[in-house]
Amino acid sequence: MATKEVDEQQTLDGLIVRGRQLPSAKTGVVYPLSADALVGAVEAARDGLIEPVLVGPSDAIRRLADANDADIGGIQIVEAADDEAAAAQAAAMAGRGDLHALMKGSLHTDVFLHAILQKEAGLRTRRLLSLCALIYSPAYGRRIVLTDSAMNIAPDLDQKRDICQNAILFARAVGIETPKLAAISAVETVRPQMPSTIDGAALAKMADRGQIVGGIVDGPLDLDAAVDPQAAKIKKIVSPVAGHADILVAANIEAANAIYKVFLFMDGAQAADCLMGARVPIILTSRADSPQTRAYSAATAVIVANAIRNDPLMLDEAEG
To answer: Residue 22 burial (CB < 10 Å; 0-12/13-18/19+)?
Structure first.
């Protein structure tokens, strides 16, 4: 697929503009004891996106800020002795409604997520957590959502249903009113020896029966048929999704991770990541994330946090 003329309305730069127009999200930055984590949070605040609350050992945070010329004057610091305490404190604050989003600092992902998933934190919904990436690909020429490249290794059908629902809600939040979701496999027909094709067909039928709501679901579709109208036409696929997918749901983490990295490192795509399925958006930063990706992700969290307040579907399955 040839690179298309850039549509400025589709690039992710518009996320920053939109995020600034919304009320800033009070964001718990959990254990920001690396330069990337602390400076990224300070820059997101300076950009008018988030109102950071730094959760961790205050003396160490201030020393790090001084060493990196990061101005944290006026930013609230919540004392926590170590990474586990910081994660638990931030999760509890978000569960009480004191924070509207969470951002991972320099602690291990397992420690961060363990605190979020504790029932007493009040952040769980009936859906599992899954990572949604909003991507602008120069080759595709418009935004697309990819899931799940980082959380769920080999999701079963029930888990894929949650992954689909999270992705649809995410797509709606960022402005795709009725997202078209493609369950990706290697072929576009059901083949019993290829489980991902059976899952794709089942997910499409689940959407027909109201078990997945807010979007249009079809599968199985191979990648070219999902995103290229000409490929869908040649293959004679009659589908409201084929050729026009807004969301790609991969069969497993290996496939999603590979697609994600091809977009970023070989196609020069822009990306914003958000962990969905909790009562607040979660920014799951990586050491390899560029400053641009961190900024886009912060803006996306602001947009999702605002959608949670306004879209009744966003928390329709919150745990009681």
So the answer is: middle
With tokens 């109201």, the residue in question is 210
User: Which residues pair with residue 76 across a beta bridge?
Assistant: 53
3 state DSSP class of 149: coil
Distance of CA 314 to the CA centre of its chain: 14
Residue 317 structure tokens = 């399955």
Which pLDDT value is given to residue 310?
83
Tokens of 237: 């696929």
Q: CA–CA distance from 216 to each of 31, 128, 180, 233 (Å)?
A: 39, 21, 5, 19
Helix (H) or strand (E) holding 243: none
pTM exceeds cut of 0.90: yes
What phi and psi, each to the nearest 5 degrees, are found at residue 130? -150, 150
Q: Please tell me the total number of residues recorded for the chain in this structure.
A: 320
More confident residue, 4 or 47: 47
Q: What are the chain's domains?
A: 13-125+278-310 (3.40.50.10950), 130-270 (3.40.718.10)
Please state the three-class secondary structure of 76-130 as a single string.
EEEECCCHHHHHHHHHHHHHCCCCCEEEECCCCHHHHHHHHHCHHHCCEECCCCE
Whether cis (ω within 30° of 0) applies to the bond prior to 138 is no
Kindly tell me the number of DSSP H helices and DSSP E strands found in the chain: 11, 11
Average pLDDT over residues 7-25: 87
Contact 290, 95 (CB under 8 A): no
- Cβ–Cβ under 8 Å, residues 249 and 180: no
Q: In this structure, which amino acid lies at residue 200?
A: G
| Helix/strand/coil percent split, the chain, to 5 | 40, 20, 40
Amino acid letter at 20? R
Amino acid at position 109, single letter? T
Give the torsion sign (CA, 304, 308, 312, 313). positive
103 confidence band (pLDDT: 50, 70, 90): very high
